[in-house]
Amino acid sequence: MTTTFKLCNCNRSMPIDGAAGEKIGMVLGTASLPVATELCRHDVTSYLEALDGVDDVIVGCTQERALFTELAQQKGSVAPLHFVNLRETGGWGAGGKQALPKMAALLAAAALPDPEPVPVVDYRSEGHVLIVGPADRALSWARRLQDQLEVSVLLTGYAHAEMPVERTFPVFSGGQVTIAGWLGAFTAEWRQDNPIDLEVCTRCNACVTACPEQAIGLDYQIDLAKCSSHRDCVKACGAIGAIDFTRGDTRRSTTSDLVFDLSDTPLLGMHQPPQGYFAPGTDVQKQIDESLKLTQMVGEFSKPKFFLYKEKLCAHGRNGQIGCTACIDVCSAEAVSHDGNRIKVNPNLCVGCGACTTECPSGALTYAYPRATDIGLRMQTMLAAYARAGGAQPMLLIHDQENGATLINRLGRAAQAGVQVDGGLSGVPARILPIAVHHTASTGIDVWLAAVAYGAAHMAILTTGSEAPQYMAALKRQMEVAQIILNGMGYAGSHFSLIEAITPQELDVALATLHPAQVPAKIALFHVAAEKRTTLGLAIDHLKSEASAAPEEIVLPAGAPFGEVQVNKQACTLCMSCVGACPEAALADNPDLPQLRFIETNCVQCGLCETTCPEDAITLQPRLLLTNAAKQPTVLNEAQPFHCISCGKPFGTAQMIANMVAKLSQHGAFSGNADRLKMCSDCRVVDMMANRQESTIADLKRH
After folding, report:
1. Burial (Cβ within 10 Å: 0-12, 13-18, ≥19) of residue 158
2. N or C: which end of the chain has fewer CB within 10 A?
C-alpha cells in the first residue's frame, strides 16, 4: 500500500512550490508531490481523485478538515484520511522559507501507522444531576435544568429562597457534604443539620405561621440564630413529623450521575475533578457554560484506559513497609491510592495526564495513550526525515492536543498577519518540530534522553497554565536529572526547557530564546522500548559511547531513579531483610556464602531496603555509575559463616550468632542452655530431646 500526500500553499501564503514538492517527495520516498494553490476550492478535483483508492490520504491542512471529511463522505470514499498542520506550525512566520525540512518531518510522521488500540473505560449516565449549593443559587438552576435533566437539589447554608410551588424534584438540606465517585456513579453524603427535614415536609406553611420569631421562611428551614426553642412549630407540624430538634440519625446520602456544585468553594479540591463533576462556583458566566455541558452528559461514554500497571515491578511496598509513593504524590485526580504492598489506580478517575508514569522510577506504571514506543517512533521518524531534507540542529516541542495546539495555531496566524507586538511576531522557528500528545506530563526522562540520542538538539515542553502545580514540579525535577546526566558526560548546552505561556506573544518570546545544545555525533538506532528502564539503559549507553567526557560516576540529586546502596558493615548482621524487600532484584544474597550483593543498574532508589533494615545500616546515595561495574554484582557486606558447635554445619554469621546470644541468653527458653543458640535448628532439637531433666510442654500438660 502507498500513501497519497496532498500539498497546498494556501493561496500562495506559504513558500511551497514545485521544487519544494519535488524535494519533499524525495524525502518521503514518493514521486514529486504536486503543490496546489487552492486545494479546498479551485483545485478540489485533485483531492477528490485521491479518494478513489483504498490507500491512506494525507492532507497538509487542518483548517478545512471538516470540508475535506464531508467531501469524502459524500463520495463514499473508504480511503483513510489524515490531516497535518503545515501552515501555522512553520509555513507561516519569519522562518517559513527555511521550514521545508520541518514540513517533510511532519508529513513523514503523519504517514506512520496508527498506534495499536488501547482498552477503554465505559460510563453510563441517565442524566440524574445533583445540584448542591445555597438555596437561591441551587433552586434557580434546578428550575432551569429540570426539563433537560432529572434534578435533585441539596441545599447548604441558609440563603433564603422560595421553594417551587410544585414538588417537581427532590430537595434535601444539610451540611458537612462529601462527594465521591465519577460520571454515572456519584455518591453524596451529608448531615441533616436543620430541624426541618425537607424530604418529609409538605410545605403546608403551618410552621411558618406558628413561629413567633419569624425564623422560618418559604425555604422551610429554621434560622437557628432567631429560634428561641419554644417548639410551636413542632406542634403545628403535628403528625407530619418533619420537624425534630432532637433528631439522632442525621446522616443522609443519595446517588446521581452528575454533580453541579454551586458552592462558593468546590467540595472536591483536587486539581483534576472526576468526569461529570462541575463546580462553577459564583461565576455566573461559568455557571452558564457548565450547565450547557451538563445537558450533553446523558448517554453512554467511553475514554481510553490511559495506563498499564505491572505489579511485579512496583516499588511501593514490601511486607507492610512503604517505599516509593511517587505516583500517589503526583496524581492531581486522586486516582492512585495505597493498596497494601501495591498501588491501585482507579481508571474511572484517571484523566490521562500520565504524570504517574513519568515519575515512576521502575516502569511499573507506563503510559498507553500513546505508548512510549509510539512516541519514540514518531520522534525517530521526524528527526530522520528532517535530516534527509537538509535540516540541521532540530529541536522538539511537546504540546497537548488542545490548549497547546490552539496556542501554536494562534501564534502562526498572528505571525503571518503581521501583528505588531514589540516589532512583530516571528512564529514557530523552522528548526522546532512540534509533537502533539494527550498531556504534556506524559513524557519523561526515558523519552527525553532517547530524543537527544536520536539527534534532538533541544526538548521543550509547552504548558499553558492549566497543568497541576505538582506536574510542573515533576517535569522540572526530571529535567534537572536529565540535564545533569548530559552535562556530566560532557554534552554542552541546555537540552531541556519547560515553557509556560498563555498568549501567542509569550510563546513567541519563549521559542525565540531556545538554542540547540550538543548532541552525539553518531545518531542512535535503538527504538524506545516498552520498559522504561530498558530505554534508559539504551539511551545512556549510546550517549556514553559518544560522550567527550568519561567520568566513572555522575552525582545526582535526591529523588533520582539511579544510585547505590551503602551499608554500614559494623551494624549490618546480614539478616537479608533488605533482599526480601527489594522489588527490583538489585539486592541479593549468595546461597553459598554469607554475602549481601548489589547490582546498581537495577536499583531505582525506592528506599524499601532502607526502611526495612532492622539495624538502620542502609543509606541511599543517588548517582549514575557509568562503568561496567554498574551491571555486575558487587559485595556490600560479607562475613565468615558460623559453624554449628554440634555438627559443624555452617549457618548464620558469627556476628549474628553473637548478637542473638547476647539478646536471648537470659530468656527462659535458653536460660542455662545458651549453647543451643550456637547450634543449627536440627541439633537444637536433638539436644532438647536428649536432656530428660528439662520440663517440656508435655510435662506441663500432665500436671
Report:
1. middle
2. C
Going from the C-alpha of 8 to that of each of 18, 33, 401, 409, the distances in angstroms are 11, 10, 23, 17
Residue 437 pairs in a beta bridge with: 400
| pLDDT of amino acid 218 | 87
User: What would the grid cell of residue 586 be?
Assistant: 538489585
CB half-sphere exposure, 426, CA atoms < 13 A: 16
pLDDT at 228: 87
Beta-ladder partners of 339: 342
pLDDT at 569: 93
pLDDT at 700: 46
Read off φ and ψ for residue 129, nearest 5 degrees.
-110, 135
**pLDDT confidence of residue 305:** 95
Q: Which residue type, as a one-letter code, is found at position 297?
A: M
Backbone angles phi, psi at 587, to 5 degrees: -105, 140
| The dihedral sign for the CA sequence 527, 532, 534, 540 | positive
Q: Specify the pLDDT at position 630.
A: 96
- Please check whether residue 446 is in contact with residue 539, taking contact to mean a CB–CB distance below 8 angstroms: yes
Contact indicator for 250, 191 with CB cutoff of 8 Å? yes
Distance CA 495, CA 493 (A): 6
Query: How many angstroms separate the Cα of 703 from the Cα of each of 195, 690, 692, 696, 697?
Result: 67, 21, 17, 11, 10
C-beta of residue 270 within 8 angstroms of C-beta of residue 332: yes
Q: For residue 543, give the nearest of 497, 499, 586, 495 by alpha carbon.
A: 495
CA distance 246 to 616: 56
Phi then psi for residue 496, to 5 deg, are: -135, 145
Give the helix ranges, DSSP H, for 270-419: 284-295, 326-330, 355-359, 372-388, 403-417
Contact 16, 9 (CB under 8 A): yes
Handedness of CA 207, 210, 211, 217 (dihedral sign): positive
Question: How far, in Å, CA of 425 to CA of 567, rounded?
Answer: 58
- The Cα 91–Cα 98 span in angstroms is 9
pLDDT at residue number 663? 77
Three-state secondary-structure class, residue 266: coil
Element (H, E) at 447: helix 445-453
Convert 315-352 to b/e letters by CB count within 10 Å (16 or more is b).
bbbbeebebbbbbbebbbbbbbeeeebebebebbbbbb
Calpha distance 538→312 (Å, rounded): 22
Grid cell for residue 70: 464531508
CB 567 within 8 A of CB 637: yes
Helix intervals (H) in 80-156: 100-110, 135-145
Mapping DSSP to helix (H, G, I), strand (E, B) and coil, where does residue 119 land? coil
Integer Cα distance of 645 and 675 in angstroms: 8
Encode 138-207 in three state secondary structure: HHHHHHHHCCCCEEEEEECCCCCCCCCCCCCCCEEECEEEEEECCCCCEEEEEECCCCECCCCCCCCCHH
Is cis: bond before 195, omega within 30 of 0? no
Q: Is 308 helix (H, G, I), strand (E, B) or coil?
A: strand
